[in-house]
Design brief:
72 residues; mainly alpha; 43% helix; elongated
Length: 72
């Protein structure tokens, strides 16, 4: 399933799922078996001008680059 679709589904259904898991111990155990364990994020990058980040705003790796603010 597309990650964006999963993200949207969880955003919409999250409160309902949270309540259901709190109320049903068997459901909570089942959900825990299919979710990855909580942990850090690993980002690997390599190569000239490589940029890696978990969250990123603006990233430029070019020589003599100029960032112009967006006019509203």
């Amino acid at each position: 399933m597309n990650a964006e679709i999963v993200s949207q589904l969880l955003e919409q259904a999250g409160p309902y799922l949270s309540a259901a898991v709190r109320e049903d111990a068997e459901l909570a155990r089942g959900v825990a078996t299919v979710l990855p364990a909580a942990g850090g994020v690993t980002v690997n990058v390599s190569g000239d001008r490589a940029i890696g980040a978990q969250h990123i705003g603006i990233a430029v790796s070019a020589d003599n680059a100029t960032i112009h603010p967006r006019l509203r």
